[in-house]
Amino acid sequence: MSAPIPTPRAAGAASEHLTDVTLDDVLASLEKSKTDCFTTYDECASLATLAAELRDGLHALGTELKQRHNVIGRMTGAAMHRLGESMDLLVRKAEEMRTESLHAAEAIELAHDDMHDAYRPVQQATADAGLVMPSARIHNED
Question: Rounded to an integer, what distance in angstroms lies between the CA atom of residue 125 and that of residue 120?
Fold first, then answer.
């Protein structure tokens, strides 16, 4: 990230043109959001793995209860089956979330780069010209 460009106070500018939001703040926020998406991506992978392990453990426990402990009741079997299905669903949803968080990170990175490329040159040109703020593009259109 580039160093912030110091800009003088916008004395005399109308209040509707002033804001507390800076380009550097927005870019930093986008960068943090991208990092959060990658963290979510990793957490979803871990969640899917743990849910699959739990599902497999439930199947093994059901088999052991049936074969070694003579617990073969209809309700016990149904409960173990439902728990296994729940873990299958959790695995699928965690994988979906993982994919979506990667897509979100990519979209945020694109937005960050687009915003940087669109506004940083204007900000630099404004500072180089010694202006308080750039003219709105609408003022320069035919």
Answer: 9
- Can you give the chain as a three-state secondary structure string? CCCCCCCCCCCCCCHHHCCCCCHHHHHHHHHHHHHHHHHHHHHHHHHHHHHHHHHHHHHHHHHHHHHHCCCCCHHHHHHHHHHHHHHHHHHHHHHHHHHHHHHHHHHHHHHHHHHHHHHHHHHHHHHHCCCCCCCCHHHHCC
Q: What is the mean pLDDT of the chain?
A: 86
Please report, rounded to a whole number, the percentage of residues in the chain having pLDDT higher than 90: 51
What's the confidence (pLDDT) of residue 122? 87
